[in-house]
Amino acid sequence: MSLFSFLPTLLLALGWLGHPLLPQSATQASQPMLNFPVPTGVANQLFYLQRDPNTNTIIYQLNVNSAGKVDEDEPINIFWLRYDEQGQRKELNFIQRKFAYGLSAEKVGPDKYELKFAAYNKVPFYLMRSSLDRAFHVFTVINNRQIVLTRVYLRIEGGTFWVPNVRYIEFKGWDATTHAAVVTRITV
């Protein structure tokens, strides 16, 4: 079972994605049903994750100490922006951190950490300092292109409470070499 079929199933089973998903028509399936907000004003935001069926958003933020240095034990803070609840910030609970949206981080070099999602650890992501702007970003390789990640979107179309139909995952960011905008979908 892939990340994108397992993760929504787990979250649906635990009641975090709302009501059971119902089948949609072809017209509904071709376009996202929600107008997702773009998070703003989050200091040190690395990227964010959004998914059907609501606009609540998970933020992945660089965790720095009072001296501005990355916390080597926990380099990324992860939390909700609950847009469906007036945009309040809310910490992930234990199960969300350990089995779904959490990340493990292993330092693999100076200013470089390998990151793995709790729900799926087969695709590595790297928190690294960019040689261009000297800022930290999250990098991954998709379709033989190294990209700097800014958004992840899970598209869920229909299915059932226990087996949602995850159609694709969309990675948005910019090409680490050319700086061109990149939007890449992986069909699940």
Describe the protein.
- By secondary structure, the chain is mainly beta.
- It has one domain.
- It contains 3 helices and 11 strands.
- It has helices spanning 3-13, 26-30, 94-99, and strands spanning 45-51, 54-62, 76-82, 88-91, 103-109, 112-117, 125-129, 136-142, 145-159, 164-175, 181-187.
- Strands 1, 2, 3, 4, 5, 6, 7, 8, 9, 10 and 11 form an 11-stranded mixed β-sheet that branches.
- A hairpin with a 4-residue loop joins β9 and β10.
- The longest helix is centred in the N-terminal third of the chain and has 11 residues, at 3-13.
**Computed CA radius of gyration, to the nearest angstrom:** 17 Å
Uncertain ranges: 1-32
Overall pLDDT score: 81
The largest pleated sheet is described as:
11 strands, mixed
Tell me the fraction of residues in β-strands, as a range. over 45%
Summarize the structure.
The protein is mainly beta and 188 residues long. It contains 3 helices and 11 strands; from the N terminus they run ααββββαβββββββ. The longest helix is centred in the N-terminal third of the chain and has 11 residues, at 3-13.
Note the topology:
Elements: H1 3-13, H2 26-30, E1 45-51, E2 54-62, E3 76-82, E4 88-91, H3 94-99, E5 103-109, E6 112-117, E7 125-129, E8 136-142, E9 145-159, E10 164-175, E11 181-187
Parallel strand pairs: 1-9
Antiparallel strand pairs: 1-2, 2-3, 3-4, 5-6, 6-7, 7-8, 8-9, 9-10, 10-11
Keywords:
3 helices; mainly beta; disordered N terminus; 188 residues
